Amino acid sequence: MLTLQSQGLDELEQRFAQLPSDFLAALRGKAQTLGDALVDKIRTDKLAGGVPGARTGALAASIGMQPMEGDASVGVSVGAFGDIKYAAIQEYGGKTGAHEILPDKAAALAFVVDGVLRFARRVEHPGSTIPAHAYLRSGLAEFADEIRAGLAETFDQTWERT
User: Fold this and answer.
1) 3-class DSSP assignment, residue 84
2) First-residue to last-residue Cα distance in the chain
3) 123-125 and 116-120: which strand pairing?
4) SS3 content of the chain, % helix, strand, coil (to 5)
5) Residue-wise DSSP of 8-69
6) Domain-by-domain residue ranges, the chain?
7) Of 65, 61, 75, 62, which is closest to residue 39 (Cα–Cα)?
């Protein structure tokens, strides 16, 4: 006759029962940390003087992170937030239509053509084809290994603490 006896089963069951809530709490903190690091990478590595070139810094300043949480889910959204109309066309590329350019802070527009300074009250722009400058997608792709490692580390640390 074979007799089996278990020891520590109650403690193991309690550990497993506590794991989901502990893990979600740890993931929320890690997601915030990783999201902030990704925002910093995009601002400093992708938009600081690269392509697209920074003129005012408005696009870089618009990059932010928002938590996305449910009862049993954790995530963050990293992107351009606010009224930066050119954020999407810089990320994905596209075409602009013909449009009129008018001065908004002066009586005339000033620009250089063939080394000569010119002035005009309005300019008819023929439209442009803007190539994609994937500052968000490329930043995420470059940061993906750190995200995976951070999430795996969070699980390991949570298991050890529980």
Assistant:
1) coil
2) 37
3) unpaired
4) 45, 25, 30
5) SHHHHHHHHHHHHHHHHHHHHHHHHHHHHHHHHHIIIIISSSSSSPPSSSHHHHHEEEEEEE
6) 13-93+131-161, 94-129
7) 65
Task: Kindly tell me the burial class for residue 63, based on how many C-beta atoms sit within 10 Å of its own C-beta (0-12, 13-18, 19 or more).
Answer: buried
Residue 140 has pLDDT above 80, yes or no: yes
Nearest to 63, CA basis, from 37, 41, 45, 81: 81
- Which tens digit of pLDDT belongs to each residue from 111-132? 999 999 999 999 999 999 999 9
77, 80, 85, 89 alpha-carbon torsion, rounded to 10°? -80
d(C-alpha 144, C-alpha 136), whole Å: 12
